[in-house]
Amino acid sequence: MLSAKHSARTYMRISIGAAVLTMGLKFWAYVLTGSVGLFSDAAESSVNLIGSLVGLWMLTVAAQPPDQEHRYGHSKAEYFSSALEGALILVAACGIAFTAIERLINPQPLEQLDVGLGLSLVAALVNAGVAMLLLRAGQRLRSIALRADAHHLLTDVWTSVGVIAGLIAVRLTGWTMVDPIIAILLTLNIAWVAIKLLRESAGGLMDQALPAPDLQCIQEVLDYYRQQGIVFHALRTRMAGSRSFISMHVLVPGDWTVQHGHHLCESIELGIMQRLPGSNVITHLEPVEDLVSWQDQDLDRSP
Question: What span, in angstroms and rounded, lies between the C-alpha atoms of 74 and 93?
């Protein structure tokens, strides 16, 4: 059985292969037709390739075990990958918009549209298949790097769909202005995807709390123990790539033995880790009768 990080790197290698193939197909189509829409599509595929290469590098870094300087591991390296990919998408969007505006001012006739459409369609189908594969793998492996790459590929697919629609319109109407107009509109969608990637990456680097479904899983585990009279507060969570970090204070009767309290905490930690694979749970045991134990309830307002 492949480890999660090893599997993630395998999927990223598939993405690299798909990026090389689709980039070649789209640049070939651009050379044949002279379509600025196909050029924008090919430029985005080039960014896909760079993003996938960086993603593979960051997944390799993230797979390294904890060391003396990184006691919590290297999982956050994935956020650098998604942030860089978001930045590259923005750069590509600016380049596409500049080229499209220039072509809008100085329109040029398009050639060999049938061949260009065929090549672009093949590339779009390849990207769609790989994107769905990466998206499912990213959700299963809890990898933001894979999910970022998948969303980038899906953006590429929609870009291709828009370009193909524009070329068909040019073919039917002969109005070459449609091609750069489509390209300009596509840059808005591309830029929006980039902004979302950057926001998600920033959230991870800023120790954003776990998503609502994960928090619900934690509360379901704690509710089982609440029914037994156990009290919890100061629940804090954060994500680091595919890993989740959870801490909480557990309040029990003060006359419990250390062994009894330790057994309870171990049971709580195991229950959460079974519901959320890849999580790291830390519990702090406190006597429920001690007033000092209740003075840290302000931490409940923290994520």
Answer: 31
Do residues 153 and 248 share a domain? no
Q: What is the pLDDT of residue 117?
A: 76
Helix%, strand%, coil% for the chain, nearest 5? 70, 10, 20
Q: Are strands 231-240 and 243-252 parallel, antiparallel or unpaired?
A: antiparallel
**Ramachandran category for residue 73: left, alpha or beta (phi over 0 → left; psi -120 to 50 → alpha):** left
Q: Write the pLDDT tens digit of every residue in 103-138.
A: 677 766 666 667 777 888 888 899 899 989 988 888
Residue 266's domain is classified under what CATH number?
Answer: 3.30.70.1350
Nearest 5°: the CA angle 60, 64, 69 is 130
> pTM for this one?
0.60
Distance CA 166, CA 39 (A): 13
